[in-house]
Amino acid sequence: TCGPDSLWSPLRWRYSSWMRAPAGNILPETVLVEEARRERRTIVRERAGGRETEQLPGAGRLAFHWGVWQAVGHLPRERGFSITFDCLEHLRKLKRNHRLVFRRSQVVALGGRRIRMHQFAHWGQGILPTEYWVDDADRLLLVIDGNRAAISQLLRPDRGTIRVGTKPPAPKVARGSARSNGRAPERPNILF
Asked: Beta 50-55 vs 42-47: how paired, if at all?
C-alpha cells in the first residue's frame, strides 16, 4: 500500500523471496516472507522468527523505486521542477539525498508514429543516474540507468505502433490505496 503523496511512498508491504535448486525445488533455507509497515520514519518488519523495528534517519520525503516509477507520470512537466527525497531501495536499504527533476520534452519517432515524450532525471547516493521517459498519456515508457533499460510492453517490436490514448485524469488516491484513478499501475517489462 502506498501513501497519498506525490512519490507514492510505501506504507505497508509484503516481501517474498526464495531460490530454487537446479532440480527446480525451493531451497527452504532461502525462503524469506516479510510483512512490513511504516509510520513516518519507523519501519516494523515481521517474519517467521521475529520482529524488527528500524528507525530511519532524516525527516524528509521517503520513496521506493516502484513508487517513483508510478509517480513520474503524474509530476509537473515544467522547467525548474525538482523534488528531493530519501529512497528505500528494495524496501530495505535507505539511500539518502535523492533528487528527481524534470529535464525536457521532445518529439520522437516510435513505431512509425511521432510521439511527445517527457524526461525526468533521478540521482542520489548509492544509485546510478536514472532517466524516466513518459508520454502525454502519463505512461512510463522507458527507464534507463547505466547499462540497463526497462522498456514498457507498449514499445514491444511485435506491437508495430505505440498505442497513444487520451491522458487519464490526475491521480485520486484514497488513504491506504495503491491505485491511482482506479487503474492498476502498468509495470514495464525489464529487458537486459
From this structure: antiparallel
Q: Are 15 and 89 in contact (CB under 8 A)?
A: no
163-190 mean pLDDT: 41
User: Could you tell me how many residues make up the chain?
Assistant: 192
Average pLDDT over residues 2-13: 82
Residue among 91, 68, 78, 61 nearest 143 (CA):
68
Side chain identity at residue 145, one-letter code:
D
- pLDDT tens string 61-101: 898 888 898 899 999 999 999 999 999 888 888 999 999 99
Q: Is the pTM of this model over 0.85?
A: no
